[in-house]
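User: I'm putting together notes for a lab meeting next week and I want to include a structural view of one of the chains we've been expressing. I don't have a solved structure, so I'd like a prediction I can at least talk through. The sequence is below, exactly as it appears in our construct file.
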Amino acid sequence: MEAGERVAELTHEAAGLLEAQQHVYPGMDIDGAVDRILWQEARRYRVSITTGNTHKTENARAGLFADYDTTAAGDTLRRQAETMHFDDLRAWMAGFAAKVIIKLEELGNV
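Assistant: Thanks for the context. Below is the predicted structure for the 110-residue chain, given as C-alpha coordinates.
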Protein backbone atom coordinates (compact mmCIF):
# COMPACT_ATOMS: atom_id res chain seq x y z
CA MET A 1 0.00 0.00 0.00
CA GLU A 2 2.74 2.43 0.96
CA ALA A 3 4.65 1.84 -2.28
CA GLY A 4 1.52 2.60 -4.32
CA GLU A 5 1.39 -0.86 -5.85
CA ARG A 6 -2.18 -1.57 -4.72
CA VAL A 7 -3.85 1.78 -5.41
CA ALA A 8 -7.01 0.25 -6.91
CA GLU A 9 -7.51 -1.96 -3.85
CA LEU A 10 -6.87 0.92 -1.46
CA THR A 11 -9.26 3.18 -3.40
CA HIS A 12 -12.01 0.56 -3.26
CA GLU A 13 -11.55 -0.18 0.45
CA ALA A 14 -11.28 3.48 1.50
CA ALA A 15 -14.36 4.46 -0.51
CA GLY A 16 -16.33 1.55 0.97
CA LEU A 17 -15.40 2.47 4.53
CA LEU A 18 -16.31 6.12 3.93
CA GLU A 19 -19.61 5.28 2.21
CA ALA A 20 -20.59 3.19 5.23
CA GLN A 21 -20.25 6.34 7.37
CA GLN A 22 -22.08 8.69 5.02
CA HIS A 23 -25.31 8.42 7.03
CA VAL A 24 -23.43 9.88 10.01
CA TYR A 25 -21.65 12.54 7.92
CA PRO A 26 -24.02 13.29 5.02
CA GLY A 27 -21.93 16.21 3.75
CA MET A 28 -18.76 14.14 3.46
CA ASP A 29 -16.95 14.44 0.14
CA ILE A 30 -15.94 10.82 -0.42
CA ASP A 31 -14.01 11.51 -3.62
CA GLY A 32 -12.11 14.33 -1.92
CA ALA A 33 -11.31 12.15 1.08
CA VAL A 34 -10.06 9.29 -1.11
CA ASP A 35 -7.95 11.80 -3.05
CA ARG A 36 -6.36 13.00 0.20
CA ILE A 37 -5.71 9.45 1.36
CA LEU A 38 -4.14 8.33 -1.91
CA TRP A 39 -2.40 11.32 -3.40
CA GLN A 40 -1.72 13.67 -0.51
CA GLU A 41 -0.30 10.84 1.58
CA ALA A 42 -2.67 11.22 4.51
CA ARG A 43 -2.34 7.49 5.20
CA ARG A 44 -2.06 6.22 8.74
CA TYR A 45 -1.21 2.72 9.86
CA ARG A 46 -2.09 0.81 12.99
CA VAL A 47 -0.87 -2.67 13.77
CA SER A 48 -2.20 -4.65 16.72
CA ILE A 49 -0.77 -8.04 17.60
CA THR A 50 -1.79 -10.52 20.27
CA THR A 51 1.30 -12.09 21.79
CA GLY A 52 2.02 -15.16 23.83
CA ASN A 53 4.91 -16.16 26.05
CA THR A 54 7.50 -16.00 23.25
CA HIS A 55 7.02 -12.22 23.06
CA LYS A 56 6.48 -11.46 26.72
CA THR A 57 9.40 -9.04 27.11
CA GLU A 58 9.49 -5.49 25.78
CA ASN A 59 12.48 -6.27 23.52
CA ALA A 60 10.77 -9.32 22.05
CA ARG A 61 7.62 -7.29 21.33
CA ALA A 62 9.67 -4.49 19.76
CA GLY A 63 11.19 -7.07 17.41
CA LEU A 64 7.75 -7.74 15.97
CA PHE A 65 7.79 -4.23 14.52
CA ALA A 66 11.31 -4.25 13.08
CA ASP A 67 11.56 -2.07 9.96
CA TYR A 68 8.06 -0.64 10.51
CA ASP A 69 9.64 2.83 10.46
CA THR A 70 11.21 2.23 7.04
CA THR A 71 8.15 0.54 5.55
CA ALA A 72 5.86 3.38 6.65
CA ALA A 73 8.38 6.21 6.80
CA GLY A 74 7.73 9.59 8.32
CA ASP A 75 6.49 10.89 11.61
CA THR A 76 5.52 8.31 14.22
CA LEU A 77 1.97 9.69 14.14
CA ARG A 78 1.63 7.89 10.78
CA ARG A 79 2.18 4.50 12.33
CA GLN A 80 1.03 3.04 15.59
CA ALA A 81 1.80 -0.39 16.95
CA GLU A 82 0.59 -2.19 20.00
CA THR A 83 0.53 -5.62 21.52
CA MET A 84 -1.74 -7.37 23.97
CA HIS A 85 -0.27 -10.28 25.88
CA PHE A 86 -2.22 -13.36 26.93
CA ASP A 87 -0.66 -16.36 28.65
CA ASP A 88 -3.45 -18.51 27.20
CA LEU A 89 -5.45 -16.73 24.50
CA ARG A 90 -7.64 -19.76 23.76
CA ALA A 91 -8.84 -19.94 27.37
CA TRP A 92 -9.49 -16.20 27.45
CA MET A 93 -11.43 -16.33 24.16
CA ALA A 94 -13.48 -19.30 25.36
CA GLY A 95 -14.46 -17.39 28.50
CA PHE A 96 -15.24 -14.26 26.49
CA ALA A 97 -17.33 -16.22 23.97
CA ALA A 98 -19.31 -17.82 26.80
CA LYS A 99 -20.12 -14.38 28.21
CA VAL A 100 -21.20 -13.14 24.76
CA ILE A 101 -23.48 -16.14 24.30
CA ILE A 102 -25.12 -15.51 27.67
CA LYS A 103 -25.65 -11.83 26.83
CA LEU A 104 -27.10 -12.64 23.40
CA GLU A 105 -29.47 -15.16 24.93
CA GLU A 106 -30.59 -12.52 27.44
CA LEU A 107 -31.17 -9.99 24.67
CA GLY A 108 -33.07 -12.54 22.62
CA ASN A 109 -35.58 -13.02 25.42
CA VAL A 110 -36.35 -9.33 25.91
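A couple of points you could mention at the meeting. The chain has five helices and two strands. The two ends are 46 Å apart (CA to CA).

User: Perfect, that's what I needed.
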